């Protein structure tokens, strides 16, 4: 049997298979993220009942308080990486594999253009459209046109393949990157026009899902075609870059080997995530951190919504420290609340020159600021609200942190619910973020004093990070040199308990 070299460089064949591996993990970890809030909207307030797609089975009780945490679903591990409410890790897998996938894609495109391979993917004549239609028609009538049979051997793809591959590589892949990155609260707080173009945060999230479905459709079609054209013959082309009649047994088995390897990699990722979740996070997060720090951490918030854009509804996350809730209640908070917060004080201490003890009236007397912004919960829901309060920078200027202070710790009266209510809820942000003009201690929401569920009498607002940083029911603020001595040492209650990333910019 005569062997024809197709001239696919090794780089192209390798990146093709790594792409496949990363895609499987991206889709599974993506499903894990979806399971945290399996509802899709086109409006920024995610108003219940207006979802265009719901994959949720749970129903929220009417007439009593439910939190967005209650809306999370547990999806099985074959579908979600890692599944079973290990949501923070699902995010870590998604971001780490997204980076791996993007690099693979860039290498692939570089290999395409370094050789003359791009001719195979990039149509250079309008004739590709009628040709693709003709090929589609052939397929519909089950007339298989073996690629390369018609035309010269230099064109191993038929017109339909060429168009599809071009669309997937040069349109769909960038679309997924843009709609993915576009969901970062930091990007949204800064790149206003891009946010609008994507239809807002919920538009980006919905489009990202639609893109995933298209990718899945491609994957299914691609595999179906491979089977239709003959497994061994196609594996010869995809693995060894040759045509070899009806295909070699070696290629057929090598293809099976690759499938098994991809399955095993997914299995191992799941296993490690369940057996040693902390270790897994400690390996994955440093892959993401440099990109987060370089591209997202330094972004300055500069956006305000119009009052007319305020959402009619905003979810609650974290149950209040009031009497009805056994895990989160705090007797001290209840006493302060019953006194109308007249005795409530915000203690400001730690590495500062002048510790402060501020009543709510003293805080209201400081220079005030208002901002109408988009709240981004890590689960995926958002809401626009108007917040009134004092810039944290005003407090920082008055307590004067010592040179050793690097982080601000925000302590809550409430206890950390998902941790079983054993410890107080706390979060940390670094001093740089604490000084952003839109980092404020808010005492008003939509023109009214904060309600109890939204964090009365005082809560944090930071507009370039996810909601879990914005501690409600504030008790005290502490300046520290290092966050590792606090809690489990990961930088906050949700980092300690749910393995969320400390930076929270995406
Ligand atoms: N004390 C405390 N603050 C908290 C939480 C919490 O559980 N406890 N949840 C956080 C999360 S995950 C989000 S999304 C926001 C939600 O704010 P909201 O309830 O006002 O909508 O509060 C944040 N602040
Ligand atoms: Mo959240």
Structural features, described:
- This protein is of the alpha+beta class and 506 residues long.
- It contains 16 helices and 14 strands.
- The strands form four sheets. It has a five-stranded mixed β-sheet. Strands 7, 8, 11, 12 and 13 form a five-stranded antiparallel β-sheet that branches. The protein has a two-stranded antiparallel ribbon with strand order 1-4.
- Helix 10 crosses helix 11.
- The chain is elongated, with a radius of gyration of 27 Å.
- Residues 317, 377-379, 467-468 line the site of molybdenum atom (MO).
H-E order? EHEEHHHHHHHHEHHHEEHEEHEEHEEEEH
Low-confidence stretches: 150-154
- First-last Cα distance: 54 Å
Q: Give the spatial strand order of the biggest sheet.
A: 6-5-14-9-10
Count of distinct strands: 14
Report the mean per-residue pLDDT as an integer.
94
The radius of gyration computed from the alpha-carbon positions, rounded to a whole number of angstroms, is 27 Å
> Which molecules are bound besides the chains?
ligand MTE, molybdenum atom
């Amino acid at each position: 049997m005569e062997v024809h070299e197709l001239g696919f460089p090794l780089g192209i064949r390798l990146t093709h298979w790594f792409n496949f591996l990363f895609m499987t993990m991206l889709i599974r970890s993506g499903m894990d993220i979806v399971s945290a809030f399996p509802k899709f909207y086109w409006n920024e307030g995610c108003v219940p009942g207006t979802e265009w797609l719901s994959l949720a089975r749970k129903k929220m009780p009417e007439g009593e308080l439910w939190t967005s945490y209650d809306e999370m679903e547990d999806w099985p591990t074959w579908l979600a990486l890692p599944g079973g409410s290990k949501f923070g890790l699902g995010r870590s897998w998604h971001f780490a594999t997204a980076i791996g996938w993007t690099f693979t894609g860039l290498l692939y495109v570089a290999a395409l253009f370094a050789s003359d391979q791009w001719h195979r993917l990039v149509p250079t004549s309008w004739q590709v459209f009628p040709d693709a239609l003709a090929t589609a028609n052939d397929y519909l009538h089950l007339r298989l046109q073996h690629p390369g049979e018609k035309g010269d051997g230099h064109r191993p793809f038929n017109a339909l393949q060429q168009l599809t591959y071009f669309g997937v590589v040069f349109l769909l892949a960038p679309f997924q990157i843009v709609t993915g990155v576009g969901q970062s609260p930091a990007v949204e707080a800064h790149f206003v026009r891009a946010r609008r173009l994507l239809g807002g945060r919920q538009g980006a999230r919905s489009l990202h899902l639609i893109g995933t479905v298209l990718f899945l459709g491609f994957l299914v079609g691609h595999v179906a075609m491979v089977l239709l054209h003959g497994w061994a013959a196609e594996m010869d082309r995809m693995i060894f870059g040759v045509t070899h009649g009806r295909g070699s047994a070696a290629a057929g088995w090598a293809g099976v080997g690759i499938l098994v390897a991809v399955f095993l990699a997914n299995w191992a990722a799941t296993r490690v995530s369940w057996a040693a979740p902390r270790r897994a996070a400690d390996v994955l997060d440093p892959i993401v951190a440099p990109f987060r720090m370089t591209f997202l951490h330094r972004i300055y918030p500069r956006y305000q919504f119009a009052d007319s854009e305020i959402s009619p509804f905003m979810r609650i996350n974290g149950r209040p420290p009031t009497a009805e809730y056994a895990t989160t209640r705090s007797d001290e908070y209840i006493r302060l609340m019953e006194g109308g917060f007249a005795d409530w004080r915000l203690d400001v201490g730690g590495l500062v020159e002048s510790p402060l003890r501020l009543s709510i009236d003293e805080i209201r007397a400081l220079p005030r600021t208002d901002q109408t912004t988009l709240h981004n919960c890590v689960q995926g829901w958002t809401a626009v609200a108007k917040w009134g309060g004092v810039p944290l920078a005003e407090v920082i200027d008055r307590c004067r942190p010592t040179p050793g202070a690097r982080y601000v710790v925000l302590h809550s009266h409430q206890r950390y619910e998902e941790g079983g209510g054993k410890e107080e809820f706390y979060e940390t942000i670094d001093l740089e973020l604490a000084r952003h003009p839109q980092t404020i201690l808010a005492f008003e929401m939509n023109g009214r004093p904060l309600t109890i569920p939204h964090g009365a009498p005082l809560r944090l607002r930071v507009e370039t990070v996810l909601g879990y940083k914005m501690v409600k029911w504030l008790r005290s603020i502490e300046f520290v040199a290092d966050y590792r001595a606090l809690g489990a040492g990961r930088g906050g209650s949700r980092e300690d308990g749910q393995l969320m990333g400390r930076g929270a910019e995406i």
